[in-house]
Amino acid sequence: MKRIAFLLLCCYALIGVQAQNKNHNFNVAKNIDVFTNIYQSLDMMYVDTLDANQVIGNGIEAMLNSLDPYTIYYTQEKEEELSTMITGKYAGIGALIKYNNQIKNVVIDQPYANTPSALAGLQKGDIILAIDNLSMAGKDNSFVSNHLRGTAGTTFQLKVKRPVSGKVFTVKITRKSIQLPAVPYYGMRPNNIAYINLSSFTEGCSSDVRKAFIELREKGAKGLVLDLRDNGGGSLSEAVKIVNMFVPKGITLVKTKGKIARANSEYKTTEEPIDTVMPIVVLVNENTASASEITAGSLQDLDRGVVLGAKTFGKGLVQQVVQVPYGGSLKLTSGKYYIPSGRCIQALKYKHAKGGRAEALPDSLVKTFYTLNKREVKDGGGIMPDVKVKGDSVPNIALYLASFRDSNEVMFNYELDYIAKHASIASPETFHLTDADYEEFKQRVIKSGFKYDGETAKLLKSLEQLARFEGYYDLSKEQFNALKDKLQHNVAHDLEYNKAFIKELLEGDIVRAYYYQGGGIAYSLTKDVFFKRATELLTNTKEYNNILKK
Prior knowledge:
Blueprint: H1 2-45, H2 52-65, E1 72-74, H3 79-87, E2 89-92, E3 95-100, E4 105-111, H4 116-119, E5 127-131, E6 134-135, H5 141-148, E7 155-161, E8 168-174, E9 176-179, E10 185-189, E11 193-197, H6 205-218, E12 223-227, H7 236-244, E13 252-258, E14 265-268, E15 280-284, H8 291-301, E16 306-309, E17 317-324, E18 328-338, E19 348-351, E20 357-360, E21 368-370, E22 376-378, E23 387-388, H9 396-402, H10 410-421, H11 435-447, H12 455-470, H13 477-486, H14 491-497, H15 499-525, H16 529-538, H17 541-548
Parallel strand pairs: 11-12, 12-15, 15-16, 16-23
Antiparallel strand pairs: 1-18, 2-9, 3-4, 5-6, 5-7, 7-8, 10-11, 13-14, 13-18, 17-18, 19-20, 21-22
């Protein structure tokens, strides 16, 4: 009797599932039919002629926006953008460009080493006047970038103006396939500490990391700093290969789980490691995401390295690319990934039924997991570092000077003048501006009429409004006025008070103009509190082992 009851229960369950699936399929077909009918009616009867690509494209975009920020439709025209993201390659001249607010024109901001831009002699600040006789005056970054890019091997004429000298000249440039460097810098630092900066998880990046590590180990490295700060991720398989360099063969690093069977996968280490004993510190911050988190989290879960810095972004979603008709692609979220301890570090849950609203996992639902050495780790969003380090906060005045907010471009112009006066500078590790240099910059800023919003003044204004609303303003009017007087902007004071930070920004930009991206990273390490703490840890075996419970 019990067996019959059980069979009946199974039948009812199966019927329920079938009914549910049938209802779901009906709703899908119904809504597709409704959408098609609505557009056909609009196309036939709407007062204006519709642009099908735009109108339907808006509909597709709205649909995807209701899901998560990683599900994106790429039209045939945007396939190059997708390819660049996956491979790190594009065809162009190899330079960063920026819109200059003062002259209302796009300029060269930073050529990359050994690219067509650098080989053609382009420099920081060169104003892009025309491309093949097409004027670039007043055009934005996107417009200029689209015309600089093209098919590898094609040649064009680039007309530029060097701002300091005023010289206008034309150079012939042949576009090449540009491989954005996954490892823009690596090197041996003091105390035999190897440093590798990994900027992205593009195709083949694991080979670059392997080559760099072997070279540094042969030079006598006693510890490794792997810098994953601001690395937004990319290829999951490349992350597995990098971790495999440091952990034994046959270990399951990542499991992916999705709605359909083909979305479920396991990624194991498949090769013998090249080093299982060298101490490792992995640098992370709030912009460390996706494949970077797999790398950092796996090394943490297996107690193979110490994670140092700030809590990571928390992207535990897996994307795959599917082809759609007429040459387009859909990059869609197909599952979640789980690292060796079993935790998923996705921070947000996206509610498509609520217009794509993101919800954080409440603390009450955060679960505890354990590393190989039985250290506690948590899920619920991001990788929590073993050693927390707080970076320097950016002064408000520095944000204005270094960004698009300064219409006078006073910082940019000072850097160009400095470069024009100095044919060469000291090495990235030893270069610095003198106090006299900074004083010259300071006076330029003051004389330019530079203005910026002070955060304390903003907060005081808000407090004043609240006091008026609650009826306390008249009682404290005298104190409010006194604070207003004290909080009036004094640009000279703010420039002096934040001298160290602003000076570092200037020096970093100038170094990159001479030594490109790698030189800029080498310079930054001399000021980097994260790297300093990592070095201390790698040279203190007892502290390092205590953290990992060895």
